[in-house]
Amino acid sequence: MIYHRVFLYLENTFNKRLIPIKNGLQCTCIITLIVLFSTSFSAAANHELTVDVDYNDGIYSSTLSTTIHVSRDSVYQLLTSYDSLNKYSRLIYKSQLLTNGNLLLNLEVCFVFICFDKQLTLSLEVSEHSITGHIVPEYSDFKSGSMKWQLSGNNLVSFLQFSGELTPSFWLPPIIGPLLIKHKLRSEAKYSVIQLELLSTSNCNSQ
């Protein structure tokens, strides 16, 4: 019953707002693709990973904690390679550290056939193995928000904790919009963790 309502909502919303969807079967195919992607990706992630994403009153909040089996310094080096963050994030297609110290991120968020091209600017506070970014609303497609990465560990293993909040300033379809955003944040968090470990391991082996 719940899935049926989702399919009907997708059909009505996409017909009116976004792309032509001709029938409920096509809506079913879209949801099936999303579920298959989520299932296959979860099966591929073998990390000690906890991801939680919530939505309330227009605000998306997320937390992540994971163990990465490489040195803390190697992971920190990747997190602070501000001009090449797209190496471990599929959401970021371009990143740039500006002369004023702010971090500019160009994002592309895709849901099957629909893509959003958005900009996010963060003012950074960086300390030893900790990075905090606060959204600069006038240069972002987000009203407000913040992100924090905290690293601990040693030369053999890293413990990464992330927390963040985002309030988009662009329109998203109610009900299904938050559902898709939450799914995207979860899946991309898992992808980034895997890539961080692969890149860190590769960098260590090449030294």
Task: Provide the fold topology.
Blueprint: H1 2-16, H2 24-44, E1 49-56, E2 59-68, H3 72-79, E3 92-97, E4 103-111, E5 114-127, E6 130-135, E7 142-153, E8 158-168, H4 176-206
Helix pairs in contact: 1-2
List keywords for this structure.
8 strands, 207 residues, 8-stranded antiparallel sheet, disordered N terminus, single chain, Alpha-D-Glucose-1,6-Bisphosphate, Chain A, domain 4, alpha+beta
Please characterize this protein's 3D structure.
The chain is of the alpha+beta class and 207 residues long. The chain has two domains: 1-44, no CATH class; 47-206, START domain (Alpha-D-Glucose-1,6-Bisphosphate, Chain A, domain 4), CATH 3.30.530.20. Helix content is 36%, strand content 37%. It has four helices and eight strands; from the N terminus they run H-H-E-E-H-E-E-E-E-E-E-H. It has an eight-stranded antiparallel sheet, covered by helices on one side. Helix 1 packs across helix 2. The longest helix is centred in the C-terminal third of the chain and has 31 residues, at 176-206. It starts with a helix and ends with a helix. The model is unreliable at 1-45 (pLDDT under 50).
Largest sheet composition: 8 strands, antiparallel
Shape: globular
- The proportion of strand residues reads 35-45%
The CATH homologous superfamily name of the largest domain equals START domain
Total number of beta strands = 8
CATH topology description of the largest domain: Alpha-D-Glucose-1,6-Bisphosphate, Chain A, domain 4
Could you report the average pLDDT, rounded to the nearest whole number?
79
Rounded to the nearest angstrom, the radius of gyration is 18 Å
- The secondary-structure element order is HHEEHEEEEEEH
CATH class descriptor name of the largest domain: Alpha Beta
- Overall SS class: alpha+beta
The residue ranges in which pLDDT falls below 50 over 5 or more consecutive positions are 1-45
Question: How many structurally independent domains?
Answer: 2
Helical percent range? 25-40%
- Give the assembly state of these chains: single chain
Architecture of the largest domain, according to CATH?
A: 2-Layer Sandwich
Number of helices: 4
Main sheet strand line-up: 1-2-8-7-6-5-4-3
Alpha carbon gap, first and last residue: 56 Å
